[in-house]
Each structure stands twice: as structure tokens, then as C-alpha cells.
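Hey team,

Filing this mostly as a record. A colleague (T.K.) asked me to run one chain through the structure pipeline before their review meeting, and I want the input and output archived in the tracker in case anyone asks later how it was produced. No errors, nothing strange. Just documentation.

Input sequence:
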Amino acid sequence: MPLYDFHCEPCATKFEVRASIKEKQAGLQPECPTCHSHEARQIVTAGLVLHGSDGGSLSLASPACGCGSGGCGG
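Output structure:
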């Protein structure tokens, strides 16, 4: 099940919610674990791709080495 990041407007707490895609599509309204408010909004992040002058690109969303482990050396 995917994890969604949320930010509570009243108390500024950041928290995660594990929910199915169907639950998300149905209008997920999570409760803040700190103040119990339902006034949280989803934090949406986007991947970043840098294009070099030589036509190559570097994606910051994945390791440049291609090892797939999040870092080199193992």
C-alpha cells in the first residue's frame, strides 16, 4: 500500500498515511496524530531531472551509479 505525506494546517505536524489507491481516490481525509484535526493537506513532491549540455541527463530520483540500492559500494 502506498504511503502519502500530509501536513496539518492547524499545528504544522507532518505525518504519513498508508492507504490503498481506492481509499485515496474516495477522498482520504486523515486525522492528525497530534491535534486530531482533519485539516491536513497532502504534500506532493516531484522528481527533478537535470539536462547537461552534452545531451545527457541526471535524475535525482534514482542513484546515478545504477546499483539500485540508494548508494554505491554494495
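Quick notes for T.K.: The first helix runs from residue 21 to 25. The longest strand covers residues 3-8.
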